[in-house]
Amino acid sequence: MIKRDFTEPRECLKKYIECLAYSEFHYPEKPFNYVLTPDGCTGLIIQNAPFCEYKLNEHGYVTPDRCFILGQTKRAIIVNYRSGYRFLVKFKPWGAHYFLNAPMNLFTEKIIGLESALGRYGREICESVLNAPDKTAATNILQDMLEKRFAHNLSSKKIEDDENIIDTVKKIIGSKHITRVIELLESSYYGKRHLSRKFHAIIGLNPKSFIKIIRLRLCLENIRIKKVISPEMLLKEFGYYDRSHMIREFKEILSLTPTSYLEERLRVIDNIIGYKNA
Q1: Each residue of 171-188: b (16+ CB within 10 Å) or e?
Q2: Are residues 106 and 197 located together in one domain of the fold?
Q3: Cβ atoms of residues 105 and 204 within 8 Å
Q4: Is residue 276 situated within a structural domain?
Q5: By the 8 A CB rule, do 138 and 23 touch?
Q6: Could you report how far apart the first and last alpha carbons of the chain are, in Å?
Q7: Last residue of a domain, one of 156, 174, 196
Q8: Are residues 121 and 53 in the same domain?
Q9: Cβ(154)–Cβ(98) below 8 Å
């Protein structure tokens, strides 16, 4: 069973943070297997013990530190959860770049300990949050440290130079029909090669991979809400060329068909309750 509680980020953090969540996992007998789907976001995870394992490739599972950065991924990750609790900061696609103050392609397809990523400051974040008297205090401490970190990094950046990339990302997220990089160049003052370099630095992926992930994310959200699959509707609404194109991208990123995804999603929902509804 997973208990999950979301906290709305402070106003000054909303531009860079998608959500803040506290979760408790109760699986004392055997781990719970879960398919973690790519969503265009990098995560900061602080947990009381290294109780989860991530299969990032065919070489097997990685058991991360208690506090780590889960970098951008191009494909779904199989996760094994055991018992414990954790805090999750899910950054907006561009947000982690301004928190980590580093090129995001260094984190793509990787799990990197927070101390390795940020040095002593990363260790301080971990210790401060985990030593808080309760989850409310821990969440406030975490937001304080996030706020200070963003303020420090943004003071030395010319963020207006990156606004074109951020606007391009918002355009991709807001559209269901962008299928080619060339469609982005019409509203970007970057050429194709420079756009790709900036995407790698700020987002961690190239534009083509990001477009695929966001379109799949919108498609999966539609499936989750309606709990029914109409291939014809998905093709028309999300700009897939044909059914084989849609199935191919599902399998490429998720290793699942749309029907298999829905079955997996419903199984996960059965294991999750919110604190406010518990």
Answers
A1: ebbeeeebbebeebeeeb
A2: no
A3: yes
A4: no
A5: no
A6: 12
A7: 156
A8: yes
A9: yes
- Domain coverage including residue 208: 160-266
Stretch 181-208: mean pLDDT, rounded? 74
- CATH code of the domain covering residue 60: 2.60.120.10
> What separation in angstroms does the CA of 102 have from each of 64, 157, 202, 247?
20, 12, 8, 35
* Single pTM value for the model: 0.84
Q: Return d(Cα 142, Cα 22) in angstroms, integer.
A: 11
Output the domain CATH number for residue 256. Answer: 1.10.10.60
Q: Could you tell me if 147 and 13 are in contact, meaning their C-beta atoms sit under 8 angstroms apart?
A: yes
List phi, psi (to 5°) of 177.
Answer: -120, 0
Residue identified by tokens 């093709």 is 235
Q: Which tokens go with 89?
A: 């900061």
Structural tokens at position 249: 């991208």
Q: Which DSSP string do the residues of 140-164 spell out, in sequence order? A: HHHHHHHHHHHHHHHTTS-GGGTHH
Q: Identity (one letter) of the amino acid at 177?
A: H
Q: 144-171, pLDDT tens digit by residue?
A: 999 999 998 888 766 666 788 888 888 8
Q: Which two tokens stand for residue 103?
A: 């090129």
- Does residue 198 sit in the same domain as residue 135? no
Token couple for 53 = 């394992």
How far, CA to CA in Å, does 10 sit from each of 15, 91, 139, 255, 259?
Answer: 10, 13, 11, 36, 38
Q: Are residues 35 and 138 in the same domain?
A: yes
What does the pLDDT average to over 73-99? 92
Quote the CA–CA distance of 219 and 234 in Å, as a whole number.
7
Lowest average pLDDT, out of 15-29, 50-64, 174-188, 243-257, goes to 174-188
